[in-house]
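User: Last request for today: this protein with oxa(dethia)-CoA, please.
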Amino acid sequence: MLKYFDYISIVGTGFYVPDRIMTNFDLEKVVDTTDDWIRTRTGITERRIVKDSEATSDLAIKAGAIALKKAGITSKEIDLLIIATQSPDYPLPSTACVTQHRLGLTNAVCFDISAACSGSIYALIVAASLMKTCNYNTAMIIGTDVLSKSVDWSDRNTCVLFGDGAGAMVLKMNIKGRNLLSFDWGTDGSGVDLLKIPAGGSRSPILSSNLNQRQQYLKMDGKKVYKQATKMMYHSVIRALNHAKLQKSDIDFIIPHQANKRIIEAIAKKLALADDKVMINIENYGNTSAASIPIALDEAISQGKIKDGDIVVLTAFGAGLTWGSIVIKW
Ligand code: UT7
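Assistant: Here's the final one, the structure of the complex with oxa(dethia)-CoA:
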């Protein structure tokens, strides 16, 4: 799919993670695991976990406020807010409505999208498309997740992988630099069962029988997801590059979804990218789901890893199965 979002620019980014750090050593006291297993199999050393009283929108608001400040605009200037989350404050209404009110985005139309760890890529593509078709001048997307409240803290296969966080981006029309050039996205619903939270929706409502079977918690076939993630993100990056008439040798910097350091390294190897062209911060945050890409982008910018004129690629993969990539000329 070929699309050019002429002069839609990322003019501000920001992220927020909760203060509470949970290390691998802390996890050794929770499940039958070791710091060595987690570090060598995933690259994760620690992750941030919310307080009981904190919800997804609390993180979103803090990340959004930082992005607004860095973009140098007021909350009233935002025309559109899209929140990507898999862990909304409530089943209804959307976390975007909660966030709009508390951030004072009074002129914005707001809604959530559900695309799991690909959520921020989907949100960027949807926001850019609406900016073009509805003439919105300024948009904000926020990827925000509190999966610590959806993982089973007795399941070592999953609870060691995730962390909480939020990352935001502000987009503006008709600005030169940091422009979205092209994208690729896709979905394969035959993979629904590989990664899902079985209860809490209309198929298996919150009934004690479902809760007793721990169906309210995230379940994953890690091995199958791993194989798909490596394959899909690589092909998606190549397709997105092709749409911009670029090749893998043109990539100056890549920001992959932070699900597993080994997945990131496998993709970097296939793309023949040196270590200094690849963003990895999974050691500090684990997999923050929809927040992973905007957190990594904001850190890459503040660490001076991206220069003006660079070709930057964002790529993600998640439950659904969903995937997507975006090429940016910084
Ligand atoms: O963001 C959305 C996408 N999510 C992902 O992309 C995650 C993709 N999957 C993965 O990252 C990896 O598959 C995992 C990190 C989840 C697992 O790594 P793996 O190398 O595929 O390990 P495995 O599932 O093959 O498990 C190997 C062994 C098993 O023991 P046996 O059966 O060989 O005796 C597991 O029971 O490791 C065991 N194991 C653990 N041991 C210590 C699984 N989890 C743990 C643990 N600590 N936390």
